[in-house]
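Sample intake sheet
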Amino acid sequence: MEKRVAVVTGANRGIGLEVSRQLADDGLCVVMTGRNESEGMTARDSLDTDGRDVRFHQLDVTNDADVTSLAGYLEQAFGRLEASVLNVSLERIRLTMEVNFYGALRVCQGMAALLCKSGAGRVVNVSSGLGQLD
């Protein structure tokens, strides 16, 4: 059986790096992505131990050419990708957007006046597994 392939965006640090590590530890081939190639390669190198199958591909998710480049790389290297938003119901996507995007924005807007009163106001948003599409 061929190894499953996962793509992780923002994989050069924080949650993305940890997700990459855990997926690789579970035996998946992980294509780590991030905007900064140098930082991404450093992150990949930090996980490229103990038989982990990790790779890096530069990706700015706001850049259509980068997305096309990644798709071409994945097609050439693997010919497939295991998970797709195309297999998720539109209702599930709407609910996920309502919670993860609009919910977070709603809280930020509701707290804006208080944050402005602080010299160091911050909003930290962490999503649970319930916020996943797959």
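Comment: The two ends are 22 Å apart (CA to CA). DSSP finds four helices and three strands in the chain.
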